[in-house]
Amino acid sequence: MKNENCMIEAKLYTVKYDADTVSHLVPDEESCKKCISKACQTVCPANVYEWNDTENRLIVNFENCLECGACKIACEKHTLGWQYPKGTKGVTFKQG
Amino acid sequence: MSENSEKFLNKTDVIVVGGGPAGISCAVTIARAGKKVVLIERGKFCGSKNVFGGAIYAEPVREIFPNFETNAPLERKNTEHRYAILGEEDATTVSYRNNDSNPVSYSVIRAKFDRWMADEAKKEGVIIVTETVVRELILEKERVIGVRTELENYYSDIVVLADGVNSLLAKQAGVRGEIDPHDVAVSVKEVLKLDNAKINERFNIGDKDGCIYEIFGGPMLNMLGLGFIYTNQNSISIGLGITMNELIKHKLRPYALLDKLKEHPAIAPLIKDAELTEYSAHLIPEGGYKKIPTLYASGVMVCGDAAMLVNNLHWEGTNLAMISGKLAGETAVIAVNKNDFSAKTLSKYQQSLEKSFVMKDMKTYKDLMGTMAMKNEQFLGYYPKKINSFFKMFTAVNCIPKRTMFRGFIKSVFKERGIFGLFSDGLSILKLLWSILR
Predict the structure, then answer these.
(1) Hey, which residues 43-72 in chain A have their CB within 8 Å of chain B?
(2) Which residue of chain B comes nearest to A66, CA vs CA?
(3) What does the CA dihedral B284, B286, B287, B293 come to, rounded to 10 degrees?
(4) pTM of the prediction?
(5) Is the pLDDT score of A50 beyond 80?
(6) What CA–CA distance (Å, rounded) separates B158 from B300?
């Protein structure tokens, strides 16, 4: 896990963001507690989701989001609140 | 402002949501017919939220922008296609070169190319609104009459949804449901900076020529996934797309697979010392023909990725997006002229799409993804590995008589797959070929 974090951080460092102050990704806390697969963590190409064992909740690093929508589709019970960030916010690809 | 006066002031003939190839092609087609069209894009500029592998196809682009080759920002004209079948450590590559001055495709940087297309569309009368997210459709008596953004409402006779693979609006319009993890690939890509001269040398190509790699196997062995490399002027785009349910099933991170691909002995020398300039990710619709939604309803049409128009085998997406956008635009013009925006009138869009190569091609490959998903361990695992071990055997020079080696190889195939397995694989291939060719 540590190693994976390092790998992805170097990649995300190359991406231009204009982060909002509020998250455009809103998981349903109760539903996440019951979720076994936590597939959002696996499929996310930007490591936005981290499960915190001590707090027993999903941490959402929404400022790293590449806005691909993978988490929304992977979410087993379709309980993840997912929308695009505001028009002036989020990722700007310079190459794409 | 009251809703009614707003309806009057903020009204155009057509609203197009999304500034990608589909949306821009649609909007410019409508503007050229003299109709009032506004294109709403959520990014800072058209292209700023858009990601793809790396090549646009010349002929379909010419359909929309006939002179694009003289002034669009193009990287390289692709003269070589390589199909690389990777084993764990080895690789078999087939390559096709054609130095035709009239190339099939060009590599482009989407942030530049889409922006250029949008600027061209603007010159031809399309009103482009950026940094604006459409939150929902405005409906009146089950007809779409406009869109609600964060700041204001826009009204029109027709709304065209070109808002990409995630299209929340198509879902709201009732033409599309939730996407299944089997029907979408998660794609990650890196743009790596490398000197023009080094690219020419490593890919054995001329200064303006490009090379495309389609990559099977390697870190994606046994899984429904493909890798790619495109050459730009001074950079290389490398990435892969893998079906989401494979990632979930095997608990694999998409970027970890890409890192493995970059380390493969057949790939690593191509990108050695190239510096990462941008990482990106995107979803690719993979469901094929069977997952294409209804493309129209009263006051609304859907095109491009939002309509799931991707031909995975041939790596076609932007071309299908542009042609579907154009056809939706033509239907919109007919509807505006008739002042009839009913589902019946807009169904002409679906009809013209079905008459075009777009739907015909989608239909041709309707069974492809299903067969591949069912037989992925064989067709994307066992056989790619076996092709490589065949060449390993064939190129070996040792003291074993050739006939013994050949017989040994054939025996191993029978032993590993079994008579029943081989029969079943052969039958699947025949069935697939029949579905494609009949």
Answers:
(1) 43, 45-47, 66-70, 72
(2) B281
(3) 30
(4) 0.95
(5) yes
(6) 6
Is A7 touching B (CB cutoff 8 A)?
yes
Looking at domain B3-73+108-177+293-363, its CATH architecture is: 3-Layer(bba) Sandwich (3.50)
Q: Where do runs of H (alpha helix) occur along B251-313?
A: 254-263, 268-271
Tell me the mean pLDDT in the region B67-90.
96
Please judge whether B49 and A83 are an interchain contact, meaning their C-beta atoms are less than 8 angstroms apart: no
Burial B87-110 (b: 16+ CB within 10 A, else e): beebbbeeeeeeeeeebebbbbbb
* Residue A94 to residue B51: CA distance in whole angstroms: 10
Residues of B in contact with A49 (CB under 8 A): none
List of chain B residues whose C-beta atoms are within 8 Å of the C-beta of residue A42 = 247-248, 251-253
Least CA distance to B150: which residue of chain A?
A86
Chain B residues lying within 8 Å of A15, measured CB to CB: 278-280
Q: Do B49 and A91 touch (CB under 8 A)?
A: yes
Q: Over the Cα atoms of chain A, what is R_g?
A: 13
Give exposure, B172-198, as e/b (b: 16+ Cβ within 10 Å).
Answer: bbebbeebebbbbbbbbbbbbebeeee
Partner-chain contact B253 A4, CB within 8 Å: yes
Of B33, B52, B201, nearest in space to B112 by CA: B52
- Provide the residue ranges of all domains of chain B, joining segments of one domain with +: 3-73+108-177+293-363, 182-285, 368-437
* Residue bearing tokens 């697969």: A37
Q: Picking from B97-106, B152-161, B340-349, which range would have the lowest pLDDT averaged per residue? A: B97-106
Which domains, ranges and CATH numbers included, belong to chain A? 2-83 (3.30.70.20)
Has residue A1 got a pLDDT over 60?
A: no
* ipTM for the whole complex: 0.96
Token digits of residue B387? 């092709």
User: 223-282 in B: which are within 8 Å (CB) of A?
Assistant: 235, 237, 244, 247-248, 251-256, 259, 276-282
B253/A69 CB distance under 8 A: no
Of A37, A42, A96, the CB nearest to B110: A96
CATH topology of domain B182-285: D-Amino Acid Oxidase; Chain A, domain 2 (3.30.9)
Residue linked to tokens 């023009």:
B196
Longest dimension (CA), chain A: 39
